[in-house]
């Protein structure tokens, strides 16, 4: 799995999140315990034949602790403004959002405040998206199971930004009039997740670049597109049993049911598609 650190940018762009919990200030005083949080971003991609750039600008990252209603608090982790191209984050590539110590405790929600979003199409059109007033306080991303930060333990959280659902096209592919921004992001605790990877080829053994691969349980969990070699990687899939599907234009859809994924496991699933 390829991982690229720029900001580093990987908001597992979310648009995954890696939370790495370190040592404590005091082994006997839990009030002083802290853990290190490493936040990454990744993307469930937009159709790659349509857009060349899809950027979001984040100016604040915060996390919410779990407790009594009166005791709930919002901890600001970063107020640094940074822009991320979500199209760079596919097939296992992530960007690190931040790495810092936070107090030990139980956290159930991450918030990303997005102040700008823009998409550029392959035909050169550029659309600047309006940010809905309802998310100006931050996109609320619930973490299940809750993130437990404790001295001497490690947790990894991935933010998977579903670009295709978040940049909603107005019009149709032949006449795009704009996009609505409706951010959809899932948070995955990587300590309870694995990776599905493999290739998609024709029965003539030709790599099928840009073939679409997706993982389903009761609904679609995550999607990606193959690279130029027909290879794909889908990270941050919670432990469980899934069906995996692959297709591309001019070929049939191949499906494999009963794929069992355990925590930390790399499950290989290759596809050979019949031409229509």
Can you tell me about this structure?
This protein is an all-beta fold and 276 residues long. It is 1% helix and 55% strand. The protein is built from 1 helix and 20 strands. It is globular.
Main attributes of the structure:
1 helix, Immunoglobulin-like, four-stranded mixed beta sheet, mainly beta, single chain, disordered N terminus
Topology:
Blueprint: E1 34-44, E2 51-65, E3 74-78, E4 82-85, E5 95-103, E6 105-121, E7 126-129, E8 139-149, E9 157-162, H1 163-166, E10 167-172, E11 175-181, E12 185-189, E13 193-202, E14 212-216, E15 220-225, E16 231-238, E17 240-247, E18 254-261, E19 266-268, E20 271-273
Parallel strand pairs: 1-9, 13-19, 13-20
Antiparallel strand pairs: 1-5, 2-3, 2-4, 2-6, 6-7, 6-8, 9-12, 10-11, 13-16, 14-15, 14-17, 17-18
Helicity level, as a percent range? under 10%
Number of helices: 1
- What Rg do the Cα atoms give? 19 Å
The rounded distance between the terminal residues' Cα atoms is 32 Å
Helix and strand content put the structural class at mainly beta
Shape: globular
The helix/strand series, from N terminus to C terminus, equals EEEEEEEEEHEEEEEEEEEEE
Give unreliable regions as ranges. Answer: 1-31
User: What's the total number of strands?
Assistant: 20
Which percent band covers the strand fraction? over 45%
- Average of pLDDT: 80
Number of separate domains:
2
Report the sheet with the most strands, covering strand number, pairing sense and barrel closure: 6 strands, antiparallel
